[in-house]
Amino acid sequence: MARPPVNVHSAYHAHVYFDAATVQQARALCEEAGRLFKVAVGRVHERNVGPHPRWSCQLAFSASEFDRLIPWLDAHRDGLDVLVHGLSGDAVRDHTEFAYWLGNAWPLDLTALE
User: Fold this and answer.
1) Any bridge partners for residue 90, and if so which?
2) pLDDT at residue 99 above 70?
3) How far apart are the first and last CA of the chain?
């Protein structure tokens, strides 16, 4: 999936995906992001939530953090997959048209967004 233009939106989410074997790695990554950047760190969901086909933790951040946070996440994700998307008010477009992946892309359950 092609990367959308940076800073088109005023706010973004990054969803860090993990499983039982990588939950501690993901928890540490999200906590470190919370310490280093102006991000709101969501709960570490050890179950599938919403459209996400894997366990996940959400990082919410403004466009002003995008250019610092996303390269850092890419460099420190150590094999974890991360869905990054803008917040336009249209959840389906946000998770498709305004989204791209660090790592592997996973098929989303878009019916959870309708």
Assistant:
1) none
2) yes
3) 22
